[in-house]
Amino acid sequence: MGGFFGAAAHHDVVLDVFFGVDYHSHLGTKCAGMIFHDAEEGCFQREIHSIENTPFRTRFEDDLQGFHGCSGIGCISDTDPQPLLVRSHLGTFGITTVGAINNAEELVERNFASGGRQFMAMSSGKVNTTELVAALINQKDDFVSGIKHAQESIDGSLTLLIITQDGQIIAARDKMGRLPVLIGKSDDGFCISFESFAYHKLGYRDEYELGPGEIVLVNPDEYRTISPAGDKMKICAFLWVYYGYPNSNYEGVNVEVMRYRNGAIMARDEAATGGVPELDYVAGVPDSGVPHAVGYATECKTPFARPFIKYTPTWARSFMPSNQEVRNRVAKMKQIHIPELINEKKLLFVDDSIVRGTQLNETVDFLYKCGAEEVHMRSACPPIMFSCKYLSFSSSRSDMELLARRMVDQLEGEEGVQHLDEYADGSTERGKCMLKSICEQMGFDSLGYQSLDGMLEAIGIDPEKVCTYCWTGKE
Hints:
Enzyme class: transferase
Cofactor: [4Fe-4S] cluster; Mg(2+)
Family: In the C-terminal section; belongs to the purine/pyrimidine phosphoribosyltransferase family.
Number of helices: 16
Pathway: Purine metabolism; IMP biosynthesis via de novo pathway; N(1)-(5-phospho-D-ribosyl)glycinamide from 5-phospho-alpha-D-ribose 1-diphosphate: step 1/2
Oligomer: single chain
Largest sheet: 7 strands, antiparallel
CATH superfamily of the largest domain: Aminohydrolase, N-terminal nucleophile (Ntn) domain
CATH architecture of the largest domain: 4-Layer Sandwich
Strand content: 25-35%
Distance between the termini: 19 Å
CATH class of the largest domain: Alpha Beta
Strand order of the largest sheet: 3-2-4-1-10-9-11
Protein name: Amidophosphoribosyltransferase
Radius of gyration: 23 Å
CATH topology of the largest domain: Glutamine Phosphoribosylpyrophosphate, subunit 1, domain 1
Structural class: alpha+beta
Number of domains: 2
């Protein structure tokens, strides 16, 4: 997905931005960058590096001595190299974006047809999506009109930061608010962040959370809304289920608290239908499945244990490296088991989600080889039926890469697409059939998914304000 951090203050903000961006490293593993505005020299300083095999902090430490400025922005990106420096009739500005553009090629061709001359092409031949966004912004006479034009033109989502040639920062939340943007305040400045904990550690306190589509101008003395928020919001549910760091808050709801509550609701609802098996331990798939499992174990009064421990000194990030074959091997290698908590034990594992099911077979086989008596699996969210088209979670070349959709296709072919809501409900005949079929293929003794209503209850905000597209296919 990606994340960003910016700051404008009456002191040098290089370290604030450096550590603020670093605290977003859990959101992406492809590339990162920072731009600072030097008011004395009237210029920008910028660096972009790949972080596919090196953490952000290590990759950028050597650049710190060359940076200085009282305003700056930086990003972690899972897409293209950024932030970019752009020169146009709006002046020279830096820009970083997070989101997804499904109609990028159409927008590129439209730009050519309207007189646009060229884009820098990457090795794949594709256009850097942040450069495309900048081109859309530059079609208008001011930043606010340009940002709104870009957001209206894009099929997908767009959240961004811009640093202007006078060192001010413009923050714009996606028009549907699919991602959060928060402002923190210190004694002599302001910051902009996805994750609230990032600025708490840097001496900033909570000040403001942008509404959907809201655009805000930030400088060392103030922040002010320059385009008001819209009425409709669809914030991504996966921020709480998976993406968000435990001590982050979105729309006033803490991530860790939601996950405890989510696991408890899942156990509560299973118990009401007699579905909780007899167990020795409940365990979480490290790391994001752990708090869901704690809630589940507490609710069903079963001991919580950690039969798997994630080895993080050398493999700290879930998505590293980029090569799929090597990534699968790393995912296997970094899960270190504890035989004493597996042998002759009845185990139930809770994971944040089951997307493709790539490692599930191997994990179950390994557990049985270690002497497990029973292995049960639970997903802290409903079956994923649609590839995300707004952010990068569950993004796939085809919906058939998704375990649940693949299983529906095997069971009923094209006809099954007409009954996805039934397959997603484990209480229906189709839902029971899908669960049984996955168990047979994967080797589970039982499988359960959190219901959509249960997950939304755990989040606790108005369900109409939460995006559930990847489960329902409804925008």
